[in-house]
Amino acid sequence: MFGKSRSKSKANLALSKESVEVGHDAIGEGFVGSRELIFSQSLPIHSRPAGFSAHYLGVVSRFMMQTTSSDRKSPESQLIAKIEEEQLDGKLRLKPLASDAVTLRLDRHGFKITKQDGEDIILRVPLHTLAQLVMYDDGFSKSNLAVKVIVGKDLFSCHVFQCVSDDVAMGICDALQRVFRVIMSESDAAM
To answer: The CATH number of 2-190 is which of 2.30.29.30, 2.110.10.10, 2.60.40.1500, 3.40.630.10?
Structure first.
């Protein structure tokens, strides 16, 4: 379900439904709410959505991923290359504006992205449509998150966020990992 690799290369973290590895807790600037609200293991996941501050850079709409054996790039590298291509074409921001500040809330139903004031909902990403979450360095020492979403058979969209720090990006990935673990343990218990 989740796989991590720590390096200074483009793909630092890839979360998907195919592999799983245990993460770590990180708290710092960019986290919304208290440590207890976000990371308390004693509260059920339904009553403690995790909240994080980030900047929304935009969306790469409706694309297909290469799955041929001749392309030796990993899915994470392909996704990052697609994002960088869109940025070079001017279709996706490289640097966020102050008005791009958002709050990402994560619970057992998925992501809810709102403006910082919490009034305007920009996007909802149901958990069952989440295909992959990739954390990567954008080349300017900024941590970006790519949220790849299934929109059709072999069709994806990718929402790109810039985090204030590596800790915030890792916190989002860890929170998502915990959500998947809780859901998997609940489904195992129901069997």
So the answer is: 2.30.29.30
